[in-house]
Amino acid sequence: MLITTSYDPQREQLELADRLAAQIKELKGVQGNVRRVRRARMSLAQLCLTYDDPDILLVTRERIEYYHEQQPALFFHPSTAAIRVKRLLNGESDTLLEMAGVRPGDRILDCTAGLGSDAVTLSFAAGQSGQVTALESSPLPFLLLQQGLGEYVSDIPGMTDAMRRIRVLHEEHLDFLRRQDAKSFDVVYFDPMFRKPIHESNSIRSIRQLADARALTEEAVHEARRAARRAVVMKEHRDSGEFARLGFAELHRSTSKIAYGVIRL
What we know:
By secondary structure, this protein is an alpha/beta fold. The protein has helices at 11-26, 44-51, 80-89, 95-100, 117-126, 139-151, 159-165, 173-179, 202-208, 218-227, 242-246; strands at residues 2-5, 35-36, 55-59, 64-68, 107-110, 131-135, 167-169, 185-190, 228-237, 250-253, 258-264.
């Protein structure tokens, strides 16, 4: 992987690129050689050819972007969380929050954070007295999420604070769950890669190449039931057989192609 900056970088971008290069080398699961390279006047395509490497992490003044061959750039953005938080501020409901029964002050574990859209919404709902812990096992999504939640500024009231409150960990969710005491969290949430992909989803298509594609295990759900106090929730394709396989008997199928399964405790 190559780590570089936009053209004519300021000192802040150069220092951040150096820090990211050092951090990435320490993360578990990073494949291949990690190299910090000067951009000079080369295009990203020219950098790939020069260093014979298809992966680039680009530090710009606005954000960090990941490029792999011809795939769209991957970067942190609140995405649908911004829409959902606006709706909450307007007094509208949110299906995930309703299914999970989220209340102010809740401690919530998001086991499969991705780029954090659900985690941000959960954190906003849990409020200043609540706490969301977001786990991401894949190194690059973790890095983008950690950096984005710490730097992104939203003009939506309360949303920036909600992002800053999230604790992000580079962890396998099963390993983490095994270490938790019983009833450590009010809600445990899973959003694994769907067994039946929704191909028209651009955000999922961008992250799918990097995310952990393994199916959720029965042991993970068992540990989640032990660690949760009120509910374990899973999001999947509405026609998925995973709900039945993993014991999520209570289902809410939305008008879209997703559904939520809930285990009440």
